[in-house]
DNA sequence: ATTTAGCACTCGCTCTTTAAGAGTGCTAAC
DNA sequence: GTTAGCACTCTTAAAGAGCGAGTGCTAAAT
């Protein structure tokens, strides 16, 4: 268990390091007005904190920098109360240029705003369209063999794909099929269409469709969902201006990471509501070992839809960033719910 | 006018510089087997070529590097015949993983292949969907006030947007409107829909639609095209491994440029068929002053659809890249035309 | 009239040395 | 328990030496 003084010193040190991005020595800390101990005393405390794993040295006679454990402790126990939150909230409303009409524009702008305000990189993970409910579907033939299948969701999202029409299928049959699907499956989440069809509609098909046999492959093709959630970026290159990434060999993996969809999706996904912070190796990827990721989820009618995330160096300004992310995700939630009125 | 020998030396020098990315001195050139002159002679020629503006020095006693004018001359007059082209062509067919079904996947893969093969950055500018012809349109109400408008083109592309339904409009009227549009405007390019309606359909509307007056704003909203051509990237971060961009302050503007849609679109657009090369400042942007851009257009039924482009340092391997780009754009053209069979 | 050998000279790089500065850990005194 | 003092470590920046690549010019050779 840490003493009051240790807690205090740890917090002061991390605050200072976050601000100046340079190892902090005992003298620097002792210079603060609210500190009554001498540098020597502080040195002793620092040595203890280092032994406990909260601090590190860059070399034998350097000042201290926070370790990953230090940051974790700082984030969990030492963050100043989010009292300044109020001030920021007023802000974020103003930041959206004019009124944002479509959800995509909202996501895009949110990411941009966040990265502009923080100078870090931000990502918004869009809602998974496949979780939306089918409003209407349609198949529009393009040529004798190719058609476009279109699915409109209750949220106004449109999924579409090209499909190959089997030779055997007749236009009238196709129409019947579409009618059945629309009648029976409206309101079903896209992702569930497949199972619902198999469970409930084979009888109906058998009754109304002539060559039901050949339909199987066609239906599979029609309902083979592949698209992933969309990602909206802000400040992709901001990492380049962070002092700890001044080195090309260190930024490269990071930028490559940002460009790799799968990794980003995994990084930024979080089923949890609210706010999660992952520090350094907690992100479980080499390229992210010097970064922290903060995910905040936005919702619609209380349901988790997606996340807005910030990626920055481990010594990011947690306090500022957290309150920002918190208010921004709430603002997104508000606006999204406004859309649906 | 340059002498034979000057031409020869200029070409050898640029070839060497492109290969080794280091200033080339007289000794290096004289060491080549097919050179019979002494370093001193070459020094004289080099001085002349420098006076003529084809070469530069990095400092008073360094070897020479090509100037922008030098590269331009090299590209225009000195490029070895594209005899190796044949060899590459066989290649590019094989490089596509399995069969590519949709156009988007083709563009994406082409960009990836190109950047993998060159280690530079590549961009494919997708076709402008607004140049495609309307196959079918539809308006699907989501709520009492919001609807989704969907336009399917003859190429199977789907454009969609959300629109606000005026209170005054009745469902039956909406249906009529859509029917009229589909009957009268099938085969018209999306971009032209607006003018066609204004020119030819006002009479029809007046006849069939009740509140034709209020329709104006609604139609404007419906046909307000904003989407731009899509961009597909490959090797976005490849520039980081180019020796001339080892410096962070030099890459930063470049990467920022790559992320700026407007600039990229302008950079990569070219109405010309075939292949265009822009070197350094010819790209008319500070961030691109040390880069060359090569655009190759791909077509469908002989019509220019879009471009596949390569962005690399001015000392890129023009020969290799040009032949690659040439065959790749042709391959894209082939495959696109196959789709439409 | 070219071409070439020779040579002095210029830069850029790398390596070493030096000195200054920041910071630590330890000891002994307060 | 706290602190002053001090030896020691490590980093950084600056200065200087030496090397190598390359040039430009001159004078001789072809």
CATH topology of the largest domain in chain A: Beta-Lactamase
Into which percentage range does the β-strand content of chain A fall?
Answer: 15-25%
- What kind of sheet is the major sheet of chain A? 5 strands, antiparallel
Largest interface: A-B, 31 and 31 residues
| CATH class call of the largest domain in chain A | Alpha Beta
Distance between the termini of chain A: 52 Å
Estimated radius of gyration of chain A: 27 Å
Chain oligomer state: homodimer
Class derived from helix and strand content of chain A: alpha+beta
Q: Which bin fits the share of residues in helices of chain A?
A: 40-55%
Topology diagram in text:
The structure is a homodimer of 341-residue chains.
Chain A: H1 4-20, H2 26-30, H3 39-51, E1 55-57, E2 64-66, H4 68-78, H5 85-95, H6 103-118, E3 121-125, E4 134-141, E5 146-153, E6 158-164, H7 171-185, H8 190-208, H9 212-222, E7 231-234, H10 248-259, H11 261-268, E8 275-279, E9 291-300, E10 303-313, H12 318-339
Antiparallel strand pairs in A: 1-2, 3-7, 3-10, 4-5, 5-6, 8-9, 9-10
Helix pairs in contact in A: 1-3, 1-4, 5-12, 6-12, 7-8
The structure holds a DNA duplex (30 and 30 nucleotides).
Characterize the structure shown.
Chain A has three domains: 4-78, Winged helix-like DNA-binding domain superfamily/Winged helix DNA-binding domain (Arc Repressor Mutant, subunit A, Orthogonal Bundle); 83-128 and 229-339, Beta-Lactamase (2-Layer Sandwich), CATH 3.30.450; 130-222, Heat-inducible transcription repressor hrca homolog, domain 3 (Enolase-like, domain 1). The first copy, chain A, has helices spanning 4-20, 26-30, 39-51, 68-78, 85-95, 103-118, 171-185, 190-208, 212-222, 248-259, 261-268, 318-339; strands at 55-57, 64-66, 121-125, 134-141, 146-153, 158-164, 231-234, 275-279, 291-300, 303-313. Chain A is built from twelve helices and ten strands. Chain A is of the alpha+beta class. The first copy, chain A, is elongated and about 90 Å long. The longest helix of chain A is centred in the last third of the chain and has 22 residues, at 318-339. In chain A, the strands form three sheets. Chain A has a five-stranded antiparallel sheet with strand order 7-3-10-9-8, with helices on both faces. In chain A, 47% of the residues lie in helices and 19% in strands. Chains A and B meet through strand 4, strand 5, strand 6 and helix 10 of A and strand 4, strand 5, strand 6 and helix 10 of B. Chain A binds a DNA duplex (30 and 30 nucleotides) through helix 3.
């Amino acid at each position: 268990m840490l003493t009051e003084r240790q807690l205090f010193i740890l917090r002061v040190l991390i605050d200072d390091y976050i601000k100046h991005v340079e190892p902090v020595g005992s003298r620097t800390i002792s210079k603060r007005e609210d500190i009554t101990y001498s540098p020597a005393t502080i040195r002793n405390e620092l040595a203890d904190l280092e032994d406990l794993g909260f601090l590190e040295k860059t070399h034998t006679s350097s000042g201290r920098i926070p370790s990953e454990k230090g940051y974790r402790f700082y984030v969990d126990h030492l963050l100043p109360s989010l009292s300044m939150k109020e001030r920021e909230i007023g802000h974020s409303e103003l930041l959206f240029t004019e009124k944002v009409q479509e959800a995509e524009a909202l996501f895009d702008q949110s990411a941009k705003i966040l990265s502009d305000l923080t100078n870090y990189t931000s990502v918004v993970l869009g809602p998974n369209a496949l979780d939306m409910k089918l409003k209407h579907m349609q198949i529009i033939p393009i040529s004798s063999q190719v058609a476009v299948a279109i699915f409109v969701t209750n949220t106004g999202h449109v999924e579409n794909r090209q499909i190959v029409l089997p030779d055997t299928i007749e236009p009238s049959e196709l129409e019947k099929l579409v009618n059945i699907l629309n009648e029976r499956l409206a309101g079903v989440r896209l992702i569930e269409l497949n199972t619902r069809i198999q469970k409930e509609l084979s009888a109906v098909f058998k009754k109304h469709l002539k060559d039901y046999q050949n339909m199987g492959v066609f239906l599979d093709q029609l309902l083979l969902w592949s698209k992933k959630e969309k990602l909206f970026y802000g400040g992709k290159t901001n990492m380049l201006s962070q002092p700890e990434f001044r080195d090309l060999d260190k930024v490269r993996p990071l930028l490559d990471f940002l460009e790799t969809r799968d990794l980003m999706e995994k990084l930024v996904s979080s089923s949890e509501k609210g706010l999660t912070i992952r520090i350094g190796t907690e992100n479980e990827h080499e390229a992210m070992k010097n970064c922290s990721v903060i995910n905040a989820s936005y919702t619609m009618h209380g349901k988790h839809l997606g996340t807005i995330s910030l990626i920055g160096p481990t010594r990011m300004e947690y306090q500022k960033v957290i309150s920002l992310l918190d208010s921004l995700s709430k603002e997104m939630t508000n606006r999204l719910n406004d859309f649906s009125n």
